[in-house]
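Final report, results section. Input specification for complex C-07:
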Amino acid sequence: MDLTRLRLRLYFGEDFMFGPGKADLLEAIAAEGSISAAGRKMKMSYKRAWMLVEAMNAAFRDPLIDSTRGGPQGGGARLTEAGAQVLAHYRALEAVVSDAGAAQIDGLTTLLKD
Amino acid sequence: MDLTRLRLRLYFGEDFMFGPGKADLLEAIAAEGSISAAGRKMKMSYKRAWMLVEAMNAAFRDPLIDSTRGGPQGGGARLTEAGAQVLAHYRALEAVVSDAGAAQIDGLTTLLKD
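Structure output:
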């Protein structure tokens, strides 16, 4: 069996977790330009998408997502500079695991059935 | 906020996952010498501990855990050579993330509130 996916969850302080769901949501907000559209893309309820955004904005020094609710065209949202940095660090960390961890991942894969 | 824990889940093939729960269970079996004692140590039901053991033994070429059920002193269990290798690869991979990923983890940590 080959490695199909790798999920990395980072726990900080008492109760903040940053993992693949939040990273994908940041990426979807950057691509879609709105929290509701990003939530739909991820098959996540509007409420859940907003809760994750609020949790991220509360945990970091600067908000990661800048959003305007309502208005004639509905609300829009974009990543802030801090949001782009957080996403970049997380994606780079995933790449480190795949690259620097390749020998260990291969070692595990070899021990699995085909 | 500082990093308190890192959880790494590896998905293989269609539906096999190896992550911190299975790694900790292997470690507990090695330490306790029995699946039921390992399950208790991890606050996991006996049934769940056995299910995880069976899933691991089925997914790898060679069984990871060698166990004898029942008998006068109750069953005993130990890691096989393959079990010890799988555990070592996983722990080494966690260390790779912490070491090779230190700059990215620091980058994230710095952006978090204190």
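The longest helix of chain B spans residues 81-100. Residues 29 and 88 of chain B are 14 Å apart (CA to CA). This concludes the modelling results for the funded period.
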